Amino acid sequence: MDGYTGGRSPRPAAGRGLTHHNAQDWRVLALSGAGIFFIVLGLIALALPSTQEGELVWLMGPQHALRLMDLAGALAAGFGVVLTWLSGQLWRRQVRS
Is a pLDDT exceeding 80 seen at residue 39? Predict the structure, then answer.
């Protein structure tokens, strides 16, 4: 553009953006992959039939109970969500710089 006096170029630089790779990309991919793995593992543990859920942890009523694998599945899925969130924060920090 003629007469442009701003500090930054009006067009993005070639090779920048989502296709730009740097030394930190392996951490984002590793955290994302681990997060997805733990989310899937937690959902599988939550979907187990009652015969494979392990010992009773908390009895809520005659038809409802919280068993060991329900607790493990919820914790694994929660840990996966935290890992995926952390990878998003790391990726966002890399894109800004």
Answer: yes
